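writing this on my phone so excuse typos. first protein, seq and then structure
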Amino acid sequence: MSKHHINTQCIHGPQKANDPHGALTSPLYQTSTFHFENAAQGAARFAGDEPGYIYTRLGNPTTTELEQKVAQLESCEAAVATATGMGAVSASVLSFLSQGDHLVASSALYGCTFAFFSHMLPRWGIEVTFVDMTNEDELRAAIKPNSKMIFVETPINPTMAVIDLALIGAVAKEHNLISVVDNTFLTPLLQSPKKYGIDIIMHSATKYLNGHGDVVAGIVCGSLEHITHIKMTVLKDIGATISPHDAWLINRGLKTLAIRIERH
């Protein structure tokens, strides 16, 4: 937990200044691959026996700074950035659901999220039930023995309807389900889903986190276990990886997030 006010955290993330040239702002590592001292070091990094960067699809220092900063803002252990907001949605779901599993989702969602759940997931054998998440009885009635996840966004895009996250977190824990919340509209400055026991918090970073209308991106926050699983399964193989330049732009945008949210 950072000792700094959340507004300060938007500017100064958890990473320490370590630029060899003493730069006070973080550099852009616009590279696809990274140097190994020798073949043994490369083999150790690929095997996961030695920390370090290999290939930007698997990690990049510029991206790491963004991930660590947003994870801190959301009071989570870790985060992973994606190429788009829908990349964050699909990574959050496909990393944990398989053929035969059941997803309980809000009946009111961002249009592309609703389409992904309605048309794509059933093609892969994942069952989806849409419910009014403001109705506790309807939510509980939708849960089945094969249910694995509850997915909501609040406020909902574009209706701005609000869902009780305390209820979502409690029901998910009661039934041992993974809870996922799209926190795009309020950002961590106005809403902290982690306080309500939510497991995974995602954003379309295209919106308020970046704030300048020049990037499409997403980010997923959660426990180190959950985020590592997302990185090493769906994202590694499907490749919905954010570019270093886009990560750098969002890092820039985060510096004014508190001011922009206050003005909104």
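second protein below, same order as before
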Amino acid sequence: MRKGRIFVTKAKTLDMTTGPFLKKILLFAVPIIISGLLQLLFNAADTVIVGKFSADGDFAVSAVGSTASLINALVALAMGLGNGSGVVVAQNVGAKNSEAVKKTVHTSMLLSVILGVAIGAVGFFCASPLLRLMNAPDEVIGLAALYVKIYFLGLPVQLIYNFGSAILRSIGDTTRPLIFLGIAGVLNVGLNILFVVGFNMSVAGVALATVISQTVSAALVVIYMKKQNNDCRLYIKDLKIHTKSLTQTLYIGIPAGLQGMIFSVSNTILQATINTFGPLAMAGSAAATSVANFIFIPMNSIHHASTSFIGQNTGAKKIEQIKKLIFMLNGIAMAMGVVLTIPIVIYGKFFLGIFTSTEEAIIYGYTHLVVLCVPYFICGAMDVTVGCIRGMGTSLAPMLVSIFGVCGFRFLWIWVIFPFIKGMVENSYQQYFFLFLSYFISWAITLTLQVIICIKTYKKLKLKYT
């Protein structure tokens, strides 16, 4: 292979406005699926290494797992803005507006650095108070706070990679982010072994390995974007906030980011309730989340496809194709959810045993896994529908629906309904089951409302362009 070949581009984008759509959706989605699965495998390796080889054992696993909702809540706002920039790029690509694409690219990459520094500072300095707000047990809060602080030191480079990847996805390039993730992931696993097994650094080693590997992936995506010869080529000297591009990005991105943030806050509150069941329930929940993600990642790849495909067709004003794509994208996501759930449920305890050897943690984890995964296809359809709505240029309505349908209902469940159920059920495993039942009900409510919004948005767009 010629030196630097992975950075060479032929300046071609994926035309998402013409068929065959099924083939193009799969070509778009497969690298994202592989990227996601690789990331899960790398994360799973992190959990296995810290759980099996760290002196802190299950407490280290619990510490890392208990930080997920907090980290996601703070990162989600910035990630929503990144997705917003991807939608704007996709729409301008579809409209063949070259100058707007260039301005959005440079605005977005500079924005990623600004957000990374600002949100990273909040996460670093507020780690311990926020973890206590989540009812993190005293046994793990020290380890959890250490992990969060190191993680957020690397947030700027993480956002550079994620914003860059969102831009590349919007023009149909999902392969290079896969390659860069693979390189960084292998490095991450190697550094985990070195820091945790070799240097006995426990959660600090895992966090440090994550930051270093994310720095590598960010560097690779920047180098690649600098070497492109299409409208997404990055010139460091041209990094600038363009008002119109920023406004368009914020119009889509802020509601998307707030939705993701509030979504994560609801998970944070749920995590706080999980924490009251003790460290073993926390370990089981962390393991179950890792296993369930092997279903979520493929469905989520179709969510990413929906924003790009619908975005390009919206820019190209191809209304009838938008309708066709909405049905096709939802069908693919739901089929993935149903098919992938079967082996996960059947062999769930075996998969959980990879992460923890404690029987009680496995029982908690399997309870979590079953109640989450069986209706997971509903979550897939919900996310894809939201992606379609945003691709059509509407972002505020799906945010409000998600706040009501997901977050509002989960708050009601956790603070009002669940305490009532808990008082009637003595078995802790049954209590745990009823806690996670809120996922299924909130997904069903939200999907119904999002479908209504999607239909109205499509009709409005059709009226505008015909």
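The CA atoms of residues 326 and 388 lie 7 Å apart. thats all i got for now
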